[in-house]
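User: tokens in, sequence out, please.
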């Protein structure tokens, strides 16, 4: 069982920090929340939730899954793709109206 040592001497363990101190250092290195305080307009300074720009108090944990994975998803009228398609159609309609107006000026 292990290596026998003279006089029951134990090897010196490297000086380690307690677990809470290590965790505190990691927390201090976390990105900071980008939300602004109402009182003075300063930055929140709370640690941001992983993968989000804000802390848990400012909505970092909020929100459900996007699209049909969300239980409240009813149709696709307001998806990014549908909005982009609608924007494209409006631009084409605008061009057609301008062409029609230009054609009226000719006659």
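Assistant: Sequence out:
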């Amino acid at each position: 069982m292990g290596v026998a040592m003279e006089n029951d001497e134990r090897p010196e363990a490297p000086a380690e920090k307690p677990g809470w101190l290590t965790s505190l250092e990691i927390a201090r290195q976390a990105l900071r929340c980008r939300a602004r305080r109402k009182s003075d307009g300063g930055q929140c300074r709370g640690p941001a939730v992983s993968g989000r720009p804000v802390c848990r108090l400012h909505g970092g944990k909020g929100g459900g899954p996007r699209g049909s994975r969300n239980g409240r998803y009813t149709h696709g009228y307001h998806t990014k793709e549908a909005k982009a398609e609608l924007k494209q159609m409006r631009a084409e309609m605008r061009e057609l109206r301008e062409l029609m107006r230009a054609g009226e000026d000719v006659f």
